[in-house]
Amino acid sequence: MKAWIKAIIIALLTLFTASCSVEFNGDDCEDDAYYLFEGKSWSRIVEDRGYYYFVCYDFYKDGTFTYWFYEYDSRSPELFSIENGHWDVHHHGCIDEITIIRSGIKDVYDVDEFLRGLSDRNSHREINDYKRLIDDLYHHY
Description:
Shape: globular
Strand content: 35-45%
Helix content: 40-55%
Low-confidence stretches: 15-26
Strand order of the largest sheet: 1-2-3-4-5-6
């Protein structure tokens, strides 16, 4: 009899826990994506036998960003860019989108797709080295 009562109590606790977690996840859908970007840098660094690729987004708390780009392939000309713009995150249920506006161009991306290939854990020293390189290139052209 005690085993049967314990089984009922465990079943009720499991049911209660499951219903609470579903409700909790629904609330999380609304808030998370904004904090992926506010005051953070997302970058990608590839260095491989004569090929260098760097992209970095610095997202500021005021809704602006700076975009840094550099690509060098020993078989083609050096490419580089610095752009500024505005960003915003929108929610559609549990789907988050980021809007990037720069130079009059508005792009909307799924947050997961936008972040694919980018990292917020790259070395600040390496990131700053590429930024200095891009700044030097801009001043020489």
